[in-house]
């Protein structure tokens, strides 16, 4: 790995190019630019953890209209929460978010805490989410380290591909060292770098020709060595997986207009392989997403 060119004129140049790009190109997402509360920002971060922001936006808007703060979400029924989560995927996140809402409502009087140690202790909140909330909601000076930011910084500043997996010490040091000293600027830096990684400096096909950093990018200068090398994880197929079956089961439950349980006779019509169907019913029950009743009927937990 190349030496970290900290405080070099090149890094100063990267910053001066990124900010104007952000001003002209940032997507006007409903949780950006001071349009929501710290709680709204936390909800957007949880929803975006494994789902693209553009897909999250309509769900987020509906969700926040119904449950504008932690106290409102804390009072919702599990069925309402799982139903509103819709097709965002990985629905356990919805239950964790509601657990988080209950803690915020009860322990913090409905206001998100502003200390890292308190945020990271909340259900479903890890290092990334705690850092993102501190930076985006409270303008704290803290490096936010997600895959997009790691990729941009590693390519532009070090000239090497980010290899995925857990963030390395070098990547964390780099993110911290490049962070502007001013807290408001650090907020923009985090958001702009993340946005560049999502929209331009993508994993497989970086659009260097339209990138504001191109002329000063060490990765381009080096001939893009090992482009997309970190993407060694085989693409996960969805069709036929337990994820698909679990999604079908939850979708069928959400679609029921009455509050009656879904009987097993209806469930077997969803999926022909009964062993896999049963396995998915068990795992959904274990995750607290459904309640398994006698005769293998199911309903949302009360
Ligand atoms: S020039 Fe290309 S590799 Fe460098 S930061 Fe921009 S998109 Fe990424």
From TrEMBL:
SMART domains: ENDO3c
Cofactor section: [4Fe-4S] cluster
PANTHER family registered for this protein in UniProt: ADENINE DNA GLYCOSYLASE (PTHR42944:SF1)
EC number from the UniProt entry: 3.2.2.31
Keywords: 4Fe-4S, DNA damage, DNA repair, Glycosidase, Hydrolase, Iron, Iron-sulfur, Metal-binding
PROSITE patterns linked to this entry: ENDONUCLEASE_III_2
Reaction(s) catalysed by this chain's protein: Hydrolyzes free adenine bases from 7,8-dihydro-8-oxoguanine:adenine mismatched double-stranded DNA, leaving an apurinic site
Pfam families: EndIII_4Fe-2S, HHH, HhH-GPD
Family statement: Belongs to the Nth/MutY family.
Enzyme class: hydrolase
Identification of the protein by name: Adenine DNA glycosylase
UniProt xrefs under InterPro entries: DNA_glycosylase, Endonuclease-III-like_CS2, Endonuclease3_FeS-loop_motif, HhH-GPD_domain, HhH_base_excis_C, HhH_motif, MIG/MutY
Ranges of residues in domain HhH-GPD: 47-199
Superkingdom of origin: Bacteria
Alphabetical GO biological process terms: base-excision repair; mismatch repair
